[in-house]
Amino acid sequence: MSLFLQVVSVSKAVEELRNLAVRCGDEPVPLSDALHRILARDVHTDVDIPGFTRSVVDGYAVRATDTMGSSDAIPSILPLRGRVAMGKSDSNSLRPVECIYVPTGGILPDGADAVVMIEHAEQIGGEVLIKKPVAYGENVLFFNEDFSRGEPVVKCYKKLSAQDIGVLAAAGCRDVPVVQRPKIGILSTGNELVPVTVRPQAGQVRDVNSYVIAAAIRDWGCSPVFYGIIRDEREALSTVICKATAECDAVLISGGSSKDDRDMVAAIIAEHGTVLVHGIAIAPGKPTIIGQCNGKPVIGLPGHPASAFIVLIAIVHHLITAMTGETDSSMRTLQATLGQNVSSSKGREEYVRVAVKDGIATPLFGKSGLLNTLVRSTGVVRVPAESEGLETGTRVEVIVW
Amino acid sequence: MSLFLQVVSVSKAVEELRNLAVRCGDEPVPLSDALHRILARDVHTDVDIPGFTRSVVDGYAVRATDTMGSSDAIPSILPLRGRVAMGKSDSNSLRPVECIYVPTGGILPDGADAVVMIEHAEQIGGEVLIKKPVAYGENVLFFNEDFSRGEPVVKCYKKLSAQDIGVLAAAGCRDVPVVQRPKIGILSTGNELVPVTVRPQAGQVRDVNSYVIAAAIRDWGCSPVFYGIIRDEREALSTVICKATAECDAVLISGGSSKDDRDMVAAIIAEHGTVLVHGIAIAPGKPTIIGQCNGKPVIGLPGHPASAFIVLIAIVHHLITAMTGETDSSMRTLQATLGQNVSSSKGREEYVRVAVKDGIATPLFGKSGLLNTLVRSTGVVRVPAESEGLETGTRVEVIVW
Question: Which class does domain A26-46+155-179 fall in?
């Protein structure tokens, strides 16, 4: 039972796959562990930020109108009424035509509406010479100017950056509601495969895919679960696929690399569920299988690590973001100018590895099975299915890896 | 003792800081934990990759010359001599004018030099009709075409990507020599600070910086070590700075936000070591201190989270990369067109937060102390010290965060 001839477009394959995705649940994590996690709910601040009107410089709290026209030559002279201590609300109020010293972060005294930096003032005894005028609000952060109590500070489904963590801290969020990491089962099939620890004999190759796949999905916030190398035997493979789909949110099977092996993987998926796609109009990566077992998405990736990696980026990444709900999940890209012509077959989406230097993207031709082009390249350029190629000098978007 | 008036340039500050960096040692980690770690030594492959000449398609192994002139109308007819089994070296050699079936990944039989894809052939009984000629080497990966045994596959000081992990797997590297994570002590000073778990009273603010700093340096591969909030008391601060510099590879102190507090931090560093820089020509971030205690770099960051974050990116990041030796440590950037004029004071490097949309970088003006501009921005544009500003329409490089 080979469905391989019904090759579908990349967008159709992605659509089928996204439909299979089950949204992950959420869990609380301590704020210090929340970096790069995906926020599961809007977080609102429990306080006004700032909670009081404060100075952002070391200087003299004043009424701005009292500094009008001040200059080095003709400074305004204001009596110094006292000092604000850090972390304390001061009982002193500022009266017209006087000033109070306030450190950076200190509470602005009642009656003041601006701060003159110490660099622009000079204290002489009990008086301060103001040498530069300030405007209303200058060097001051007003009460709740940043966020009002109850306001959402970070929106749900955002992947949390260091700054987001800072805002969550300010908002009093000690346990952060985040989306659970998708648990992804990984297994490799193929009688030619040996573990990395074994020196391969003639005809054998090391199981590179388990490592590449695990690393890529970890980068995308998933937890890999390893099921090892399974020989191309129907019984063994069937047992492991059932176990993995029962235990994980999705399963990635890489290899069997030959048509017979792929057909076996497809047959096992069909036996326990449904095969939706067997063959995608993508190069490299055509012999990809998309199905469902135990209500979980199962993807059969090509055996070549280089091809498997393209399918991860072009197809599987969409599954992960559908599972987590991440907003702005687009991959990192850069703009470059194509340094050489790229030809492509109409009817399939082609991913060409390029090395980018000084804004020029040079295609790394060579056989798609070579690992060295993967590590020598900066990323890939996508040639759409309807295109017959791209000409030298075309501005391209490089998906960076 | 204030050295604050001797403000130094950003490049001078970075140079001083890099000179203080002590290179981290290295440690072995399992290959499956090596993603984003920095490789400490060149890794060489212990085998040829591939270890045998193999087919990259399902098809018929042939001598390319035997397929010359083949077409749908006039196929070449080759007797089928057998099948190659996956993972086994075949004893069959190919003789002229015959073919052997070989699955993807199978060993190419001796005597063959190319493979005809099954899509371009038709088996009829014991013979195969070849309908398309193949060139020498077509659909074949030759012995060690990817890497030769003993060849370096990944160079030292590279931050390992998923593809690098794959190549290390192929090379038989089960334990990866990586640079140890820099251990960075983090402490906050300021009598106005309260922990995130506490609701701040008038005059108090939550300790945002410990979280922002820890998240940023984690992103850069460091291990944060928290020393908490220390009140602005000389004895307490001195004790913690000594302890942190003894235990960590570098220490980041944020706040005290006022001039008096900064001077106290500088005085304590001077007492136990040296203050090299007190004041940098950068905005925001001027009141930054760089020194050394216990032979370890100590950096006094501004109290404002927004300013502290800029100093992390513009200054501290260089310290981290000097400690790890990471090559290609440049920050992620994107090109954009400035959507509004930006004015800047000559003589200081200015970092302007921008939001990038559709290739247009719009400066987020507003007070530098606001957290909301940090989370609303895509990144920052650097305005060099010698510039008085940038005009609308200028192509700018945005440091993305």
Answer: alpha beta
